[in-house]
Amino acid sequence: MTGDQMKLTQFLKHIGNDNSGATAVEYGLIVSLIVIAMIGALQGVASATIETWSEVETASVEAMESS
Fold first, then answer.
1. Would you state the torsion angle of the CA atoms of residues 25, 26, 30, 36, taken in this order, to the nearest 10 degrees?
2. What is the mean pLDDT of each run of 10 residues along the chain (67 residues)?
3. pTM for the structure as a whole
């Protein structure tokens, strides 16, 4: 084997033993699940907030009409 072939072989072995990419993928999956949960929770909060402001609007209109 020539020096270049040995360097290439060592490089490929190093890449094959590297687990940092797999860890990054795992962290990415965890973050994506957290984001999905947050979106679901925020949709529930948004619905409650819309209902509250709708009630405030109705009460305000009724107060203005009665005065």
1. 40
2. 78 74 83 94 91 95 89
3. 0.51
